[in-house]
Amino acid sequence: MAFDQDIQGCAELVQRGAPDRFRAVMAAPPAARAVLFAVHAFNLEVARAPWVTQESMIAEMRLQWWRDALDEMRRGGPVRRHEVATPLSRMLDPGGAARLDALVEARRWDIYREPFEDIAHFRDYIGKTSGNLVVTAALGLGDGPEDPLQRAGYALGLASWLRAVPALEKAGRIPLVDGTHDGVRALAREGLEALREARRAGVPAALRPALLEMPQAAAVLRRAARSPGRVGAGELEISPARDRLMLIGSALTGRW
């Protein structure tokens, strides 16, 4: 997949909207970056759609636009011209388009203010958003088993979600089913166990550039498990220096 003007636009979107993820992609081998930037730019476009308007109908329409575009990709016909949809269409197979469609559908929760129905609903949301994203990004780089990728994506999603709890609460959302210290600790441990299971199963080396964020996610989850009060206080962030060291170590060794 060529690093053309569209991919450059995707890279700029990721750099502005998710600088941590941008650094992780830039630590990946050059051949993997085009795929990763296309997938992560898509994720940014979808993730922000429910938040750029107070009108739920407009937010629904923005998400439906992406569902329609993904349906075009799944069918294999002409795909609408768009700076993100166009390069994304060049790396998605029908299975990838279906996974990302489920991601978009799950993001409808972000439009409204109702809490998650139960822990199963929460797990489904994290699995379909972060899990499906990681699976699709990794399988865009080569063939491999989906299950460990889904587990790793779930762990990454939990870490990102716990970091976002203060902002979500400020926005009037109820981000956790059980926001007690015990509930947060259990959730963090669940994420760490999912990541351990993924690592035990292993993934081919060609797919590992999609997993460079996992050491940072593990550090966040360990911090939340040890001190769950840090979640509500917004004190889960890893220092920039430590973040860079973990990223460099993962890129050089292939360990995630």
Describe the fold and architecture.
With 256 residues, the protein is an all-alpha fold. Helix content is 69%, strand content 0%. The protein contains twelve helices and no strands. The two termini are 24 Å apart.
Descriptors:
256 residues; mainly alpha; 12 helices; 69% helix
Strand element count: 0
The rounded Rg comes to 17 Å
Most strands sheet: none
Residue share in helix: 55-70%
Shape: globular
Distance between the termini: 24 Å
Low-confidence stretches: none
Question: What is the gist of this entry?
Answer:
By secondary structure, the chain is mainly alpha-helical. Helices cover about 70% and strands about 0% of the residues.
Give the topology, please.
Layout: H1 5-17, H2 19-26, H3 30-48, H4 56-75, H5 85-89, H6 94-106, H7 119-139, H8 146-170, H9 181-201, H10 214-226, H11 229-233, H12 240-253
